[in-house]
């Protein structure tokens, strides 16, 4: 490998819709403050919160509140206990004092009439950097590239991968439960090995290496995407589940889970480095071709998604404008965007 075979390009992208990249943290109704009137969620600064409780002599009372609330959160149905905003107000804390406890603020999506004081339950947090600003990890972007490239190669060579593709179609259009869709994982893994494991590397004894060491996408390195301007305030949207199964209801299932998202319109910057000596093994000779493959994947799956959403929400689908905007997208990023192929 020579230096000339590695190229790097810088990119700036704009979020066309809210983007959720989960941090793994999920907060219950007792771990954030929901301001119903302002339609805002305040994620408390932990150091400020502890100092506040100590200064107001509320530490013991808050411990009792947590114990009581934990029991109520374990029950089925909407949360029936006292929200943290109510508890603080009852203790004589002024609204401006409560708002000052926020480290970051999430604006609850107001277009959903079903969001009320009892329906904002668990909130899945977005990843943030050391300064509290949201970002998109490079691994998420590379995952989007990986899916786009895989899809492009499979569609270009349908005959080679016809058996796997028929299995994918059968599962997608007949799946009724999460267990059914879990069957896609092994099929995708097999496809990825067939498509990407082509380097045929050998160890010091001349024996063929096995596994990911032979993956040609080792030659694609993507940096984290950081905001052009730091973004600490986010949006909170509800997770919906729909189905393509013919026996399913047209109504989507509104889950008691909300996601913290990077707001639409946010601009982020990242870089892509490509080792073309590796990528040429799958016919890619430039970074532009990586984006081209991903765009083709987006075009195919937008048609699929529009069909699915129209079936779930009816012919007067409320997000037609959003789909028109999405046609200009370069990447699908974040939770809930990845399709099997």
TrEMBL record:
Its job: This subunit might be involved in maturation of a crRNA intermediate to its mature form.
Keyword RNA-binding: yes
Biological process per Gene Ontology, one example term: defense response to virus
InterPro entries, A to Z: CRISPR-assoc_Csm5, RAMP_III_fam
Keywords in alphabetical order: Antiviral defense, RNA-binding
All copies of domain CRISPR type III-associated protein, residue ranges: 12-229
Keyword flag RNA-binding: yes
GO molecular function: RNA binding
Family recorded in the similarity comment: Belongs to the CRISPR-associated Csm5 family.
Domain of life: Bacteria
Protein name per Swiss-Prot or TrEMBL: CRISPR system Cms protein Csm5
PANTHER family to which the protein is assigned, alphabetical: CRISPR SYSTEM CMS PROTEIN CSM5 (PTHR38007)
Organism: Anaeroglobus geminatus F0357
């Amino acid at each position: 490998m020579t230096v000339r075979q590695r190229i790097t390009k810088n990119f700036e992208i704009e979020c066309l819709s809210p983007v959720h990249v989960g941090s793994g943290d999920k907060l219950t109704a007792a771990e954030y403050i929901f301001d119903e009137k302002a339609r805002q969620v305040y994620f408390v600064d932990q150091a400020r919160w502890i100092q506040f409780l100590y200064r107001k002599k509320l530490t013991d009372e808050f411990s009792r509140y947590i114990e009581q609330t934990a029991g109520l959160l374990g029950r089925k149905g909407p949360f029936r206990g006292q929200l943290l905003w109510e508890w603080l107000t009852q203790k004589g804390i002024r609204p401006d004092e409560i708002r000052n406890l926020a480290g970051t603020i999430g604006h609850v999506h107001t277009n959903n009439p079903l969001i009320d004081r009892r329906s904002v339950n668990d909130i899945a947090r977005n990843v943030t950097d050391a300064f509290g600003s949201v970002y998109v990890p490079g691994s998420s972007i590379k995952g989007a590239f990986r899916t786009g490239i895989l899809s492009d190669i499979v569609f270009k060579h349908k005959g080679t991968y016809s058996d796997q593709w028929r299995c994918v179609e059968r599962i997608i259009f007949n799946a009724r439960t999460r267990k059914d869709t879990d069957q896609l994982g092994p099929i995708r893994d097999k496809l990825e090995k067939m498509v990407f494991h082509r380097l045929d590397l050998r160890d010091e004894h001349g024996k063929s290496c096995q596994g990911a060491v032979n993956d040609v996408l080792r030659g694609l390195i993507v940096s984290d995407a950081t905001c052009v301007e730091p973004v600490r305030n986010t949006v909170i949207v509800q997770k919906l589940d729909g189905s393509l199964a013919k026996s399913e209801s047209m109504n989507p299932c509104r889950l008691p889970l909300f996601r913290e998202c990077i707001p639409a319109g946010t601009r982020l910057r990242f870089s892509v480095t490509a080792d073309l000596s590796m990528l040429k093994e799958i016919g890619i000779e430039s970074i532009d071709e990586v984006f081209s493959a991903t765009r083709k994947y987006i075009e195919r799956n937008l048609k699929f998604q529009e069909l699915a959403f129209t079936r779930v929400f009816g012919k007067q689908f409320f997000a037609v404008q959003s789909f028109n905007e999405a046609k200009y997208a370069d990447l699908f990023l974040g939770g809930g965007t990845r399709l099997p192929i």
